[in-house]
Each structure stands twice: as C-alpha cells, then as structure tokens.
Structures
1.
Amino acid sequence: MEVDHTLITTLVERWRLETHTFHLPHIEMVITLQDIEVMLGGPIDGLPMIRSVKLDWFRLCHDLLGHRSPDAIPHPHKNKSILAGAGIRVSWLKPLFRGPLAADATDEVVQQHARYHILVWFGSILFMDKSADLVLVMLLQFLNPISDTRRYSWGSGALAWLYRHLCKASEMKAMQIRGALMLVQL
C-alpha cells in the first residue's frame, strides 16, 4: 500500500496545532497510541525514548553498524553527503548489508545486520523522513545492545515524532512532512 499524498495533504490542512486533532466537517479525529499498537504493531509500553542527541554520528554508525561513513564524501548518485544532520542515507547502507550472512558470522556481525534491518524498518514506517532515503541515526542508540530494543516504547516515540511533524507541516511555508504517514492514511 502506497501513501496517498493528496489525502495526507488534505488531512494536514485540517490539523489543528492547539488540540493535536484533525478537524473534519462533522467530527474531530486524533491518532492515538492504541492506533500505533493495533495498526502498525508498534510497542507502546516501556521506557521513553529519551537520550542525548549530541553524539558523534559517524562514530555511532561505525560502532553499531560496523561501517565508517566517509565524512563529507558526496553520495555517488545524488551529490549529497552520506550523513545529513542526524540521518544516514539508506542508499549508502543498503549495499553494505546486501546478501546473506556467512554461516560463521560472529555475534557482533549478526547484531550489526539486525540493527541495520530494524533501523530501515523504523525509518520507512514509524519515523519516515521526507526524502525516503534517510533514516535517523539517533535511533541506533536504542538498539545497543540489540536485546534492549524491546525495552522502549517505540510507539510513543513515533507518535510524538508524527505530532511534531504534523504541526510543522501545517505551517504555511512547509513543503513536505515526516512521520508515520501510513498511520495517518489508515
């Protein structure tokens, strides 16, 4: 199912900053944590997703994904850097994790591959970026160690991220939106 951009644009126009609701002709609607849990399977119980955002993103990528992203090297296809703010280009990561794991892969390599796949899934569903090629590097810190992933309320983080970007998108000068747009559409 693809995102219907016309529907999303129409809903954003009806988003009210004061109440964090969609004002429709005969009803007000809101996206809830239960919606995230039921429709997207995002866990809503657990620790809040609160950590530092003042990190060395290059080091974090290297430490948790096992690949050093070249600092200030342009992206080969788009003439853009691999790290953009707190996001990393999926088009750079994808070839690094292509193919099956070796039968004798170490636990560390298995965890790096798992982090990559979880990161891409979260980046394409819960924390979608407007470019569709960036995923938030800051999410990696919640995947270390990989066994801690279940401890966090990913649904709460995704809902806060969505509300923040619905508010930004409803501003007159806004051109695009981020967040769990599939949830908005559903």
2.
Amino acid sequence: MTKQLVHYVVVDAFTETAFKGNPAVVCFLEDEEKDEEWLQAVAGEFNIPITCFLARVAASGTDGSSPRFHLRWFVTTVAEVDLCGHATLAATHALFTSGRVDSDTIQFVTLSGTLTAKKASEIETVSTSTLQNGDALGFFIDLIFPTILISECNSENVSSVSEVFDGASIVEVKKTAKDDHLVVFSSGKAVEDLQPQFDKIRSCAGRVIAVTGLAQPDSGFDYVYRLFAPKLGVNEDQVCGSANCFLAPYWSKKLRKNDFIGHAASPRGGGVNVRLDEQNQKVVLRGKAVTVMTGSILV
C-alpha cells in the first residue's frame, strides 16, 4: 500500500526570532478523515506543547469569500483543547507563508466557534513597535477571539491557590468561566521572579493557573503574566495567547483602557498586543511568528 505524506511546519509564535516565543506544530490534512487517536498520537510523537491540524472546508474561498479551515488543537499526549491562541497564530502564519491562501483573511472552524485571523495592515502596525523590536521583519497577524468571563472564587479555592504560592504577595484570586484560576500578584516583578512548584500546582483545583501583575512603568508593557498547566502536560505555556482573553477584561477595569501589551515572562518570553472590544465581547490578539522547521509524516 502506497504511503501518503502529511506535510507539517514547526512555527514559533508571538515572536520574530527563532527559538523564542511559543512553538507549535501545524499539520496540513487533505481531509478530516483522520481519527482522534491518530491525531493524538501525532501530537505525542512531536512532544511540542501544541500540535494543530488544518483541513480546508470544501469549496471555501472559491466565490471571493474568505477561505475556511477546520482547526483542531492537541496538547502532547493528554487531550484536545477547545482554544489555543499561539497555535492559531502559527497556523495562520503557515497558511500565509506557504501560499495556500490568496486572501488576507482566514476563517477557522473550531470547538470555540468560527475564529477570524487576518494580516494587519502596515499603518496599523505603527503603534506596536514596542512589541517585538518593531515590524521590520515579517508581518503582524490579528486573531479575533472571544472574551472569557472571570468571577470571584470561593474561600476554599482562594485558600488552596494561596498555599500553592506560599510566601508570594497575592492581591486577589479569580476564576474563569472554564474553571481556571487567575492569581494577581502585587507586581510584574513578582511574576517574573516566581519559581513555580509544579507538583503543588498540579494538586490545585482547576485545569490551569495564570499569574499576572502590573508591569514596570518603563518596561514598554502594561502587564506581565505566566500560565502553568501541568495537568495538561505543559508545566509552563511559554506565551499563552488565549490567557489574554480573560487578562484583557481584568486589566481593562484596573487600568481603564482597552489597548495593552502583555509580556509573557516565561524562559522563552514573548509579547502579545491586545485590544479589548467590549461591545462585541471580543479580544484582538496581535503578534508575529517565524517558521523554524518543515517536514512530512508518512501515513
């Protein structure tokens, strides 16, 4: 039986420098016939935080409309997830740079509904010059994502989370609509200096814990954040894009503005330019990406 090739690229997202930002594998499928067990096995084989799979929606884009792709995200060997910002940015970058689309806008059909990605025009990128040393290399991509609501935690959860970060200067603890936790520290420096104990984080309620704090005034950023997800097989998500879906509404109330630059203070580091659209309950995540590897899978 003749083997087929599934082409893939490895892309570093929310950066314009290879081996920085957050890596993702993007696999191009000819159709959606691959079963979930195979998709999860491929993700485990790569052992990169997220492996995503693209399959074009039949006849999409042929009538002048935006091309549409089915998009699914898998975390190593653990599970499929319903939203991932950095892998969506990686998939968009891969489609634009491979010549698979001839439009500046792409629609993704996902577990979180239809998401839109588009190239940002040159005039729009002027205000983002502090994000990743200007826009001299590559192009910016905008992702339009839904906001994620946050609410108060009960006292039991607050106590549990506080024990995880024993000794840290915690201002407040919130929970998201997805039962994740948002822990606000007294400063961005406290977030940067944090030495996470992943066994403790794994024992805490909820899937993931995001920590955040106000950035230093001269840093060029508005807030600092990190996200830990050991239950999903990713101790620290290097630059989590989707976390900004609840960070933006939180910091909007604190800072009384809707445009931010968030700094992911992980070992690889990265920045996300964020705009909150309160009226439509959307966030626009802007960033760059760079392809670092290409290849094929034999199936």
3.
Amino acid sequence: MEGVHGASGGLGQPDLRLSPRKPVVAGPLQDGESFYVATSCQLRRLEAVSRSPIYTHFNETVQGASVIRAFSEQERFILQANGHIDHNQTAYFPRFVATRWLAVNLEFLGNLLVLAAAALAVMGRDTLSPGIVGLAVSHSLQVTGILSWIVRSWTDVENNIVSVERVKEYADTPKEAPWTIEGSMLPLAWPTHGTIELEEYGLQYRKGLNWAMKGISLSIQEKEKVGIVGRTGAGKSSLALGIFRILEAAKGDIYIDGINIAQIGLHELRSRITIIPQDPVLFSGSLRMNLDPFDGYSDEEVWRALELSHLKSFVSCLPDKLNHECSEGGENLSLGQRQLVCLARALLRKTKILVMDEATAAVDLETDNLIQSTIRTQFDDCTVLTIAHRLNTIMDYTRVIVMDRGLITEMDSPSNLISERGQFYLMCREAGLV
C-alpha cells in the first residue's frame, strides 16, 4: 500500500511547498497574526496532503474486500487504515489548538480594552458624563466579538487559499502533447507498411526514477510477428506505452514507416495503430458502442468481428443482441469476455500494426488457441507485437525479443534462441516447452 501512496503522491498529488504566506495585517496584532496564519496554513497543507492516503486506502480496501477476506488479512488493513488516520490527526488536531490559541489571545486583548476603558472612565469621572462613560464601556465590551470575527474571517481566507494552491498545482501539471497538429502532412493511409524502428530509445516513468528502457535500438520489418518476453519489470509493457506515447521518450526516437511519431498528433498516432490491452477497458453503454465507438462500421462487419473473436454465440443469446447495455467498466461481463470484446474491436479496425499486451491472460487455454489462430489468419498482413506470458503462443513467431531490466538481452527466432540455451531457453524449460 505504501508503494501506491508513494506513486500517488508523486504523480497525482500537487507539490505543496511549505512556504508560509506573508499576511498584511496592521496594528499591534501583526506579530501574533503572522505567527498564527503561517502556522495554520502549514498545518492546513499537511492535513490536506495526509488526507488523500485515507481515501486511497479506503477505496482499495473496498475494491479488494473479497481478496482480503479470503486471506484473512482484515486486521492488517484495519491497522493500516488507523495508521493513515493517526497520521492525518497529527496535523488535523494542532489546527484546532492553533485556533484556540488565537481565540485566547483575542479575548485577552479585548479584555484589556475593556479594562482600559473602565480605568479611563474612573480617572475622568469629574469631566465625563455618565452617558459617555456607559457608551465607552458598552462599546469596548463589543470589541472582543468584533475583533474575533474580523481576524478569524481574515485567517479563514488565508487558510482557504491553500485549496486554491492545490488547484493551481494541478493546473500547472505538464499536459499531454497536442491531440492534433495543424497543417500535418501525414498520409491518410499511414502506416501502409507497418515498419517500426527504435533509435537509442530510452524511457522513464518520471524524472529522477530509474530507466524503464535504456537506449534500445531495434528494427521491426513489415508483416513481422515479434514476441516480447521477460520477467516482471523487464520493460515489456513500457515498450507498448512508448509506441502509443502514453509516456514520452526521455531520449531517442521511434519511427513508424519512416515518420517520427514524436512529430505527429496523439490522435493521428493512436487512431492508426491498435492495441489489445492487458486490462480490458469497456465503457458504460451498448455493446455496439464499445465495439464501434464512432459508428464507422456496418452491423454485418460488427457481427463478422464477433464471429472471429468467438463471441457471436454469446451475443446472439443476449435479449438485446448488440444493444446489450454494458455496466460501468463492463462489470456485467466476465474478464475473459471483456478481453474478447477488445479483440473484436481490434478486428474491426484492422490497422497495419497490432500490439497485444498479454491480451489472453484471462481466457482458458482452449479459447487462447482459438484467438491465436484468428490473429494468425486475420492479421497475417500486419505487423504484430505480442507481449507474451504464455510462451507457447509465440513459438511460431518470426522473432522473439528477450528483455531484462530495460535492455534487450536476446533477439532471434525461437528455434535459434532455444538452441543457444540462453535466457529464453531457461524460460521455455520452466514452462515445460523443452
């Protein structure tokens, strides 16, 4: 959980620099007011930052409640939640202590004013009329409430500015590259061949972190079928993120059909290549909308894609057929069915480049074999990059790339890599393929 919170604090939370604001307050309260405002603003920042992990942990606990109960880890998650709340209270409670400190000081100053008015009235009883004395004392009694209201309103404004600071930090967060580029000369049919070239390509998830990919140079030819394998954290999925520019290159370039993808708009890039993701994504709406969001294909083409993805029989049995309503995230479909919907979506688009990021991880072996046969026949004239977790699905590919710690350690045909008895051979032996 700490890793999640750390990532969230780095990527999603604003960078709240604890630099006290300098209030402009006139009069004898200036020193105390400055001290209170600086302290309360800092405590407000700390309290806001420490509140986010509470919500994050609560959301993760609710989503994973079944797994937590299955492993009997309720006590651990309760202790973690209490720890986040205790950490938040270390900033939340001192805020009220600081408020009471201000109230005591204001009450003390107000009482001094009342005492001064009463003393002056006694000293000038020979020259002042009883009416003037009564008016002075009664008004001095009201000073305490008025002074407290004015100072508290001012400090509340100062404290609430912290929320504006957080919004400003989000507004200043670096944005994605332009969606489209005016005057782009990109051909309508691009990419026509599907060649991919990486030149000293390097990738970081954030500045200061370790390199996810370290200066990779690679050339993938037209219609080539390339499998990408490696241990967890080797950089396999990072390569897919780089091709779609989900993450921008830290160094080097990627060329598709000789065009540098960093020089074209994100929509122009992402609409011309296809990915079947590791986590299938569906949206609230009809099944047809999820398959064809822009309504660019006929019903016959949609049914053909469903047939090739082995979903036709399932959809035919639904009462509303293609108009079947998918809940948020596709929760009313199984994980395997959601992955088959993503496959059908890819079959509809049929671009020259297909990236599969462990796309069959949630389906059984029989369905996996059917999907692999569909991909081999329907994407025969396309360049296919497969990030594989089942090595048997890539044994007939043109090349296999073995990655480790962001580098390419081996690259050749599967048969040659096995004969060399290197890292790929060891992985195949562990999988029982040799």
4.
Amino acid sequence: MNMDIPTINALPYEDFVNIFGNVVEKCPIITAAIWSRRPFESLTDLEAAISQFIDALPESGKEGILRCHPDLAGRDLQSGTLTRESREEQAGAGMDALGPAEALRMARLNEDYKQRFGFPFVICARMNDKTRILQQLSERCQHERAVELERGVEEVKKVCRLRLQALVRTAASNKL
C-alpha cells in the first residue's frame, strides 16, 4: 500500500481506520480519533496529528498504549499471534533467531522490566538489532518509571513513523 495524501484525505472513516489502525500497535482508536482532523497537508501532518493525540493523553492512556505492545521475542512471536507489522519488525531485528541463552536472557529481562514498570519494554525494532535491543532492555530496566514511560512513548512514535512511511507516498517518493 502506498497512497498519496489526497487519496488518504478522501478515505471514508472505516477504510481510514482499517488501513491506518495499526500504525500504533493495536490502537485503532487513535486513528479513529484523528480521522476528523483531515485534510492532512502531508505525511508529516498526519504523523503530527497522531503524536499530538498521544501527547494529550493522561499518563494512564500512555501506559495503555505501551501495554498494547507485545514482548520482544515473547510468546506472541513464538505462537505466531503477532500483528503482521510486529512480526516483520521483530524478524528484521533478529528476534525470531535468538539462541537459547539470548532467548532466556530476553525473557528474563522482559519480565523484570514489566514487573518494575507495569508495561512492556518498547523499542523501535526496525532501528535496532538483537544485540542493541538486549543492551537497551538491560540498561532501561535501571531507569525511573517516569523516564521509561516517556521513552516508551517516544519509541512508539518511531514505530508509528516507519509504519506510516510504508503506507503513504510522499512527493519525494513520487520522483523515484
């Protein structure tokens, strides 16, 4: 899918939510809420509308967004129940190819993180590899909760940006 902004602006509500409903993992309500902000001037404008919606949420709403994300290399990956986007992102980072020791360490760190913060560790897998993800997970377990909430939300926005870029054709990509 690679639609231009005029096409996106013309989408009926249901189509807009169906197409963009997972740019923030399992949070189609965000897409539903920003549909009424059309017309969008550009991909940047669409992305800004999503970011503004997220930023305006109370802390509990931001935590809810983080809780919609699966554990990296967790049971959803093992059982094949990840969303298509998450499956591709995790595979691209090597999360589906961890050795036994790496898988055990990842599971332990994921559990420690969730116990400490009350939401899963979120990182933009497409911008990292398994070594960097394990390193970040280990380091970020030491942070304060408020720092991790903010960091997790920023990582959600990175994931969203990359997912939007895969769906939206920009003027620059028209010239390619």
